[in-house]
């Protein structure tokens, strides 16, 4: 009986150790995570072609990794990462526990770029710190709810921010809390020092604006004066993929 009990204890200890070691394993790198998702990404692009966009052949995909607090610009031809930027994702989550926006596949809508990507110049429809660069995420043509296709999910857009817009933003900027940008909707927010790296890619990647996009009078004046330029094309924008990991 003692031998049997000892054996059970040893087995239990081994299982506990295995469980602990598995849970403490490091997450795969962003590059490996992208590689794992690559077949899904390619299949989803093919699905857009079948959904009414037969010539859909985007050059870039923007991959956001909440676990690494990064955004990567990746070539869809080669899989090579061309740019990696520090990128806050609100509550560290476009997926799982704090999901205002589900992870997965989106397409880019309209884009607004301030002159020189200046983070003091407003680019969002409201004045709440959205500035510098602004690019819409849109539900794709394959989204299961036809009423949501082509619309921004819950106000989530890619944008940089003006740290002088509020004391809270200024504090985050001063303390370089990249992953704690207070975007309550879970927007991907590239660090303002690095946001200009996205400009040339965003200009190439723009699709149509969400039909409800509604620049306020101040933003309309900035657009009219050339301080902010809008980019949109009558096409499906380049894809954006949110990795489902924390």
- Kindly provide the name of the CATH class: Mainly Beta
Name of the CATH homologous superfamily:
L,D-transpeptidase catalytic domain-like
* End-to-end separation: 46 Å
Secondary-structure element order, as H and E? Answer: HHEEEEEEHEHHEE
Q: Quaternary status of these chains?
A: single chain
Strand-pairing-aware structural class: alpha+beta
Shape assignment: globular
Q: Major sheet, described briefly?
A: 9 strands, mixed
Count of the separate structural domains: 1
What's the average pLDDT?
Answer: 84
Give the total of beta strands: 9
What's the helix count?
Answer: 5
CATH topology: L,D-transpeptidase catalytic domain-like
User: Could you estimate the helical fraction of the residues in percent?
Assistant: 25-40%
Rg value: 21 Å
Specify the CATH architecture: Beta Barrel
Poorly predicted runs: 2-24, 92-99
Task: Give an account of the 3D structure.
The protein is of the alpha+beta class. It has one domain: L,D-transpeptidase catalytic domain-like. It contains 5 helices and 9 strands; from the N terminus they run ααββββββαβααββ. Strands 1, 2, 3, 4, 5, 6, 7, 8 and 9 form a 9-stranded mixed beta sheet that branches. A hairpin with a 5-residue loop joins β2 and β3. It is globular and about 45 Å long. The N and C termini lie far apart (46 Å).
